[in-house]
Amino acid sequence: MKKVRNETRHKKVKACVMALSLCGASAIMSTSPPPPVLAADTSSNVNVTQEQEAQALFNNGLALGLTGYNQEALSVLNKLINRFGNSQDLTLQQQVAKALYGKSIALATLHRYEEAIATNDQLITRFGNSQNTEIQQNMAQALFNKGVVLGKLNRLGQAQAVLEELVYRFKNVKDPEIQEQVAQARELLAY
Domain boundaries in the chain? Predict the structure, then answer.
């Protein structure tokens, strides 16, 4: 029973995240949110690994964002980015990449578009040479969302250039999530 609930919860979260990236978070977040989920303070627990702490911070930031507490989500995601941003550990780098992507979504939801663009740029610059599939997925999502935000700001030439960069950079990557981003970019570019 617990396994089925977790699978259902993961499917709902993934659907929300996809909806956020496709049509903007504000439409989804417009209902009255429930109280935020607060993560336990891991600083006093010496048995918690850095990976567990990073995952807990990301999960908390995601839960806050999905329930409409975007300012609080930014605070939690910034904590993760600041704490683990310089790590060379791949698992922590993956968490930082996800946190940067989540931060850009929260910023766009708050209509802080320039900051969202800058955060996407930070993710792309920091992880541009990564060959890790999970990090590449976040980079593809960041490029797509940057293009969408630029389009919302009526900076159509820049939006087109970013979407073309997404297609060029990831056209030969076999990962289905990345290819979905490429297909959506091609659709927006109409080719």
Answer: 47-189
Local mean pLDDT, 10-residue blocks, the chain (191 residues)? 44 39 37 44 63 94 93 96 95 96 95 97 95 96 96 95 96 95 93 58
The architecture of the domain spanning 47-189 is Alpha Horseshoe (1.25)
Q: How many CA atoms lie within 13 A of 152 on its CB side?
A: 17
pTM metric for this prediction = 0.76
Instruction: Identify whether the C-beta of residue 38 lies closer than 8 Å to the C-beta of residue 60.
Output: yes
CB 139 within 8 A of CB 128: yes
